[in-house]
Amino acid sequence: MPFRRLRLLLMTTMLALSIVPAAHALSVASLAEHLAVSGDVSGRFEQSRYLADLDTRIEGSGRYRFEQGERVIWQLEKPVKETLELSEAGIRHNGEALQDDPAGVATLIMQLLNGRLAALAERFEIDLQGSEANWHATLRPRQAGLAEYLERIDMRGGAQLENVQMAMADGDRLDIHLLTDTATNASPGT
Amino acid sequence: MPGTTPIRWLALLWLSVLLACAALGGWQLMHGAGFDTRVTALLPETAQSPRIERANAQLAAPFTDRFVLLLDAPDRRRASDALAERLRASGAIDELRYRPGDFPLDSLIDLLGPARYRLLTPGLADDIAAGDTAALRQQALATLVMPTALDQHPLRDPFALLDRWVEGAFSSRLDTSGELITLEVDGHALVAITGRLAGSAWTPALQSRLTDALRDFEAAHPDVQLWRSGMVFHAADGARQASREINTIGLGSLLGVLTILLLVFRSPRTLATLLLPLAAGGLFAFSLTLTLFGSIHLLTLAFGGSLIGVAIDYALHLQCARTLGGSRFRLASMLPGLALGLVTSVTAYVVQAFTPLPGLKQMAVFAALGLIGAWLSVVLWLPLIRISCHPGTERLALRLWQVLARLRGRLGPRRAALLAVAALVLVGLRLESDDSLRLINTSSPRLIEDEQLIQRELGRDTGSLYLLIDAADREAFLERAETLAAPLDRLVAEGHLGGYSSLAEHVPSHQRQRHNLALTRTLYDRELDPLLAAAGLPAALAPRARAELDAPPFLDLQAWLATSAGEADRRLWLGANSDASDSGVAGMITLSGRADAQARTSLAELAEQTPGVELVDRVARISTVLGELRRQIALWVAGALALVAALLTLRYRRRSWRVLAPAGGAILGVLSLYALLGVPINLFHQLALLLVLGIGLDAGIFMQEHPRAHHAWLAITLSILSSLLAFGLLAFSATPVLHYIGMTTLIGLAGVWLLTALVQRRESATDG
């Protein structure tokens, strides 16, 4: 089911871009190049889901951690503890392997993280604007099936990715704000 | 020559009949009649309900109309695109899917969303019933914050029931997250490509377009590995091998026979007169069989070609007699032997027409017509054609006669009877039989391996083992299917069964949907308020969320099957039974993967105990029918033989045993040999024995009709030698069916020749 794949894809896309140190020249190719730069990054995130029809928000926060080329950990702390871990071996949810989730997803993610942005560009039209210090990427799904559900993803940042905003087709939004512990070689998440 | 005028008229009449046949055959071929390569066309139109026939056809359709390829390459994207381009250009397919976007997608939200409160996977339903709901709330909370579940919404679906249903009921091993659809096999992701054929899998033109495209692709991309699954590949494999062998073996034997005949008669004209009846018989049989059956099976032609051995008998006997007899030759003296030869052979073949095997019926009709056509041509045409005599022929006949003189009389009636009894005992005690479907499997081992791998990994089945479920209406059907889930799950869990597909997995019965809704209410009562509070949502939302549960619609089977998501399930549903008196419905649960003996026993018991459920095992069924057929043919032929024996006794009295001994002895000899070597006898061995019977009877009859004639023995020897050439080569065929036929005739015909000589009365001198 494409929906399930979508959520993992989106999540890890953000994570992938969150480690972009700086975009020298604003092109997908140069962004991709930076994605290949190694180094562990970790930090806090805050997110807010806006429900258009109820005009209300659901807030959440937690920690993320990316071990270059090996592992991605997305740890929700509030309002509930949830850990999602992606690696070459597959996807683990709260420490348990997700049964029906084929490792192919993890493989794709690892490719993304290792700078193979071409794969992402296959599914999204990527539009980059601004400067290194203040850039803005807009991703629009190419597949009609995804577009029905997801309108666009906006990413903004400078030295780091700072904001991700997903706009759903029905007017709902998801805003994620990322804070990095240290600029380079962050210590493991605590 | 006196008395030839009526013959001339008859000869002309026969010529006009044949010309009409040629026109008829040509017209048929031009208007769509053609060749059939389906191995299954040989199988009986089983005497089972049309409902099972419909179920069989419907279940097999995805396997026959579609194919699956797995692809591995260093650059999978480029390789897949290149393959797709070649396949599309071949014109053999009309649809190809290997990228996620290639699948048409109905919105599952629109389709299943309204009924989601009634759709709970068995695991979820158990958890709620057991009061195990805290974890459900935690997970719901997480996905509410991070909207990763399908259409989870505080009002519509706070517990993400739709997402859970979709994940639980539609888990697939196919990975659609990337740009290609992949399947992980042994830790390695392979591209999964499915195609739909533009026509029938049995069409030779389509088969070659598809296999050529794949072969060209593999040649152009040596670093790409392909695995195949689908009936079209098996059909192509079988047809290619059979036609190649029929061509090479057929051609080889024809050349061999021509060379021998030319050496013996030293006259191209005599050779032509020997072949003329074959051509006439072939034309007669071909056009009439085509008219009667609409198409001709490739194996009928192979078997028909093998009849050359019997058909050429008549021409050989006549021409040998004319060559050696010269002016002393009279057709009248030959007629009784020729007529008996025809009657006995045709009797032996025509019996097969009474069996319910369509392929066998066709072969029997083809054989009988071919023999009659050849016989008429021999009797009506050959005497009108002048013949040249060569002294070499006489010298050869004399030398053969000397061989016969050394052999004859060595087997008296008493010793023959003793040997026959010993052989019968041996056959009765030791001979085994084999009726498995493997006999007609013509696929290469590599293709079979590919097929097994793909079927195992994809849970794809060929619809050969299934449970047929009858019920009064759709609701009763689904309830019945639900009661079968538990025992089937147990068989799968214990490793006896690979898996199963049931409609009830995707559409619960209304009864279960009502029960599920009650469970959903329990879940809401227990967990909704804490969930909203934890998410920081206003408590006022709770009553509005509960209101959604008031009267949700049911998910209906018909509606589900009509969607593109339910497309794959359509094969499992037969719908209303066609007979008007019975308004019930029917559907199937297919069983896939390996099913061991324990599974089959349990399934049979399950079907016995559950009313309206029937276990259909097509493979076992076909084996049973093959075995039944083998016994039936044996019985019919034994009957025919008794009839022929009685007929022969009228003419030959106490010499009858000498007429029957070559055929009967050779058959017993073959069977004893198989019994000793432990070769299990099958249907095709038996078909070949019919051939031995025909030639053996001819030999016996002619030796008794013309006991002192060198020409009879020369004709018999030549006839057997030419047939041996034709079939000795078939024994080397890799197509199992042809191999069995070849092996059996090889041994049998050698036996016929030897026995014909051995049982003749001992004579002191040769008096021509």
Automatic annotation (TrEMBL), chain A:
Signal peptide annotation:
1-25
Out of the domains of life, which is the source?
A: Bacteria
Which stretches are annotated as coiled coil? none
Which keywords fit this entry according to its UniProt record?
Lipoprotein, Protein transport, Signal, Transport
Subunit field text: Monomer.
Under which name does UniProt file this protein? Outer membrane lipoprotein carrier protein LolA
State the species of origin: Kushneria aurantia
TrEMBL record, chain B:
Subcellular locations according to the entry: Cell membrane
**The keyword Membrane is annotated on this UniProt entry:** yes
InterPro entries listed in its UniProt record: MMPL_dom (IPR004869), Mycobact_MmpL (IPR050545)
**Record keywords:** Cell membrane, Membrane, Transmembrane, Transmembrane helix
Q: Where is the signal peptide?
A: none
Topology with respect to the bilayer: Multi-pass membrane protein
Keyword Ligase included in the entry's annotation = no
Superkingdom field: Bacteria
| Residues annotated as transmembrane | 246-265, 272-290, 296-317, 329-351, 363-385, 416-433, 633-652, 659-677, 683-701, 713-732, 738-759
Provide the Membrane transport protein MMPL domain boundaries.
186-384
Pfam families, alphabetized:
MMPL (PF03176)
Matches recorded under PANTHER family? MEMBRANE PROTEIN MJ1562-RELATED, MEMBRANE PROTEIN YDFJ
Name of the protein this chain belongs to? MMPL family transporter
Native source organism of the sequence: Kushneria aurantia
Phylogenetic placement of the source organism? Bacteria, Pseudomonadati, Pseudomonadota, Gammaproteobacteria, Oceanospirillales
